[in-house]
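Amino acids appear as letters; backbone shape is given numerically. Here is one record.
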Amino acid sequence: MSKSRMSQQALAAALTTALLAFAAPAVSFAQDAGSDRSSRADRSSRSAERNERRNSRQSQQAEALYPDSSRQEPGVSASQRLVKQLNTLSEASSAGDAAKGLPVADEILANDRANEYDKSMAALLAGQMLLNEDNARAMTYMQQAIDTGGLDNNNHFQAMLIVAQLQAQDEQYEQALASLDRYITESGSSKPADLALKGNILYRLERYPEAVATLKPLVDAGGEVDPQWTQILMASYAESGDSAEATRLAEQVAQATPDDKRSQVNLAVSYLQTDQNDKAIEVFERLRSAGQLTEESEYRNLYALYINGEGQERQAIAVINEGLEKGILSEDYRTMAALGQAYYFSEQIEPAITAWRKAAPLAENGETYLNLARVLSQEGRTAEAKEAAQQAIAKGVRSSADAERIISGR
């Protein structure tokens, strides 16, 4: 029996599109309470409230999130006739009470006398209430808030960003990229998180060189870099065929974060992709000795590396048995067939037979039964060999010649 090469499957880094948290500001609309019956104290209180609102507006202007935008602030305020409804909607939004708030929002949006601000804010707050509950409707409301054009720049552009994020989260990557590009162009944003989202979307669209061009400056800038940005950059390098650069970056990250398992696994994967199997084994074994191999795929990668190597079957056996003892590996066909192979080529015939007996019934065809029959025949266990050969034929083999020979005793 010739030693076959077991295929190995590289681990894929888990990449997620993070939905940035957004909370629309609580909106308060002061009703016009000026009447002859108002007391001086009431007027004084209202004056203080007006001053506070004025100071708040000035503070918000000073804290503009998009100072490089060419968009002019609309300068539209709430209609006095809709103050009560807007306050009710704001309170419902703050409480996360969509059942109460959405009908009010829809009433404002359907009101012909509502101005751009009324409708934009109603749509914004309605969308906010639906986030992570019904993202499709949330996007519809957010887009309506954007298209109406009555929001201040901070809320207008934040709504645009949320639409892009939700589209990316729903794997609508072409739409997400178009939305994000519009947001970046119109807002003038150069925020790393916004550019990183673009790089992530480009990666999802398999536009790897563009993803690299977008993400590389962010990672090279140093400072506090989100590990996910680096992971996507490494994956983009690898997918674009630049495995050497992906490995260089993986080594750099792993060296900087020696206690981070994900960084170490990414490094091992990079070594796998560049056929540096010995280095991949070293990384996996460091994790194993530290008790950090906790995933089935990690054990499979390590034992496959040993089986693919020369004279490393005993190491493969140790890894497989450890995975089985810990319950990380199960006695499925793939595991037991590999264990049987490792035992056989390390000349441990009896445990090889035991492993293949478990693997054969789980196989898609009769080839494993046929291998078992050959080994049993070589060991002089004729009756058992014939039985295994019959099961091989019943399950289906590429050629039944060997099975028939074993059955006939020739």
